Amino acid sequence: MSEATAPKAVEGPLNFLDDRLGSTTFFNRNLKKVFPDHWSFMLGEIALYSFIILLLSGTFLTLWFHPSMMETHYDGSYTKLQGVKMSEAYASALHISFDVRGGLLMRQIHHWAAILFMASIMAHMLRVFFTGAYRKPRELNWLIGLGMFTLGMVEGLFGYSLPDDLLSGTGLRITQGVAQSIPLVGTYISMFLFGGEFPEGNYGDLIPRLFTLHVLLIPGIILGLVTAHMMIMWHQKHTAMPTQKQTEKQVYGYPFYPVFMAKTGAYFLFTFGVVALLGAFAQINPIWLFGPYDPGAISSASQPDFYMGILEGSLRIMPNWEITAAGHTLSLNVLIPALLPLGIVFGGAAIWPFLEQWVTGDKRHHNVNDRPRNAPVRTGVGMAAVTFYGVLWLAGANDVLAERFHLSLFATTWFFRATVFIAPVLAYIITKRICLGLQRKDAAIASHGVESGIIVMSPDGKFSERHEPASQEQMSVLLSKERAKEQAPVADANGIPAPNSKGPMGYVRSRLQRAWTFDDIPVEKHDHGHDGDGHDGHEVEGRETKQISH
Ligand code: HEM
Ligand code: HEM
What residues form the membrane-spanning segments (predicted)? Predict the structure, then answer.
């Protein structure tokens, strides 16, 4: 076992700090923090690193970007737009692209980092969901995560609105429509954000306001939340994937220093390298192609960044419903698509950990993750949500799809209107079946062993395949399903249901509870050989960490 001690080079500064702050205990404890070794824990790190890249590249952009709606005539080196009347904001974004050394690279790095940030957040969230890592005690981090996700979307929207080109204006036009459709407060929100009528009118404060929100307020809040997210994670420790050694009370993995520190440092550089390569070679948001925003121009096939696609899609397939009562118009055609899909996905995600706890009655602390197949209802619901999101996202490109596949635009709209309801249900059913199929396979391996590929002939001439017992590690992963069920407090030994199973809500709860465990296929140990769960019967008091050195 390796001891995590400070290297010679940092001993001096550490001693200096220790003399003043008494920090040795702090460093000793935290340098030894154990990190799990599963690849999927890297997804959160990609989010963290792309956020750092956003902060750095964004700061570079602020040096030249002019958040001003004052009109000017472009006179930079992009000849096609020379003499064109535009805002100073747009002219400065063009200046960054063509006349500042490394400017275009930085703009593209910033934009690619934003894409990677949102994509990694989504992948990270799915990892956390499908493994059940949000369960007690990590519900708080789940909620903080959702907050950062929402803010990331708004931050991106405001970011790509800043250059004030044709695409920016198209997005802002929609943003204003959505803001105004909100009952009671809509006109105020629109006024605070836009400062006046948009697009015709006095909305000169818009870009300066978006700028303040984009470079100061929102990144500040995200930074605060990321810090809280990391501190909570550090305090609670990571969850772990079920392995032979892993128990609910011990975490196995590599120590922070030196193994994880080296790995994560390299990982930051790797993430930065990928974003820099994308920024250098893959064009993104070529604002010079479209010219300044012109409300009269038809900007067909314009799409927002991918993380806003769900809103775009739901707007496109929504029927034209409006209610006018007492002199007020309620624009359901904008309000529903703006609020409902995100409400379903984010609201659903926010209550899910608590709903699951209520249904299953499982209030235990969970440090070992579930394999997705072992929680078929959760995995099914997750896939239904992913499908719902994906269909709306695709609907945001219905014009492009219609053009590429030579279909009528109306046909694509109707197709998505039907699919958004049908596909999630199908996704749930298919996913649940696949999970149960995989459980059956696990149960077969656990009781009969693994196919060895060796065919044996019996004395009476019959051929059969010999099955070898599964390895200890594999058996332990398979049996993690049954281990997870231990102590599940659904009903007491006499079958008396848990206290909140009475009344109408109790009825709903017990039906949901039955659905949760329905069809469950027990995985039993095979009859010949070791038990394979790797537990020697020693329980470790408290939640200690354990390091394994290699
Ligand atoms: C989560 C964090 C952030 C996200 C998702 C984000 C996203 C974006 C996006 C998508 C753009 C449009 C880029 C383009 O023109 O193609 C943008 C522009 C910009 N961002 Fe950010 N950004 C973030 C943080 C920051 C920070 C912290 C700063 C400054 C300290 C910043 C400063 C800027 C500036 C000045 C522009 C306008 C420059 C231009 O578009 O050429 N951003 N941002
Ligand atoms: C700015 C965005 C985010 C950053 C930088 C971030 C970063 C991280 C990191 C580095 C970890 C530890 C490693 C890992 O488990 O991958 C983590 C854990 C966690 N994150 Fe995030 N995250 C973000 C967004 C989210 C979102 C959107 C959610 C869920 C809605 C979420 C929920 C969690 C939970 C529950 C854990 C603990 C998981 C465990 O211990 O297995 N995070 N986060």
Answer: 46-65, 111-130, 142-162, 206-228, 266-284, 334-355, 375-395, 407-431
